[in-house]
Amino acid sequence: MTEPANAANAPPADADTDAGFDLDAAEIRILGVLIEKAFVTPDAYPMSINAIVTGCNQLTAREPVMNLSEAETQAAIDSLVGRRLVARRDQPSARVAKYEHLVRLRHSLPPAEQAVLATLMLRGAQTAGELRQRCERLHRFDDIAAVDAVLEHLAEKYPPLVTSLPRAPGTKEVRHAHLLGGQAAVAEMAESQHGGGSAGGRGRSAELEDEIRRLREDFDQLRREFDIFRQQFD
Questions:
Q1: Which of these, 32, 16, 22, lies nearest to 73 by C-alpha position?
Q2: For residue 92, what pLDDT is reported?
């Protein structure tokens, strides 16, 4: 993975991060995409607006699927720049403005923690097992215990970056969620999960269907990666 070379853009810690986070859905998606693409397409990173829009609106490996316009994306990027979570990166040979995330510098996150956080931002609440599988292209974890260690460390950050959701009725594993949308967003997610479980829970067949769907999404993403890579240069 190619880390941002413009270390001079690293912002100092300041008081507004102590109160937690309140990013909206577009900001969360954009930040997740920037972290993800820094791993999987380093040669095309930093990213142009057009490439960021494409990454945000992917039909695979995104939950939920979004349809951000260029104007919406630019407005969210400007907000993230103001929060000093994203920086504009001007390159002599580039014809358009490009952007990089500052999460690694702002919150002192090594690659494993960036990978888990980005996957949570892009695909919603997940179990440690799901995270291990879905992080494969960003960072390879030897076992679920390694994922658990990363989740614990992210939860101990100040302010915390992830949390565990209450276990829903009928489920065996705890799901984890990022906190970049604030506590209210997490509470809504937990309530939705609980509501789905109280209606009888998902049967084993439904869980298997979801797993097959996720595997198909990952396979489709691999097939589309070249197209996405090529679009980074548009």
A1: 32
A2: 76
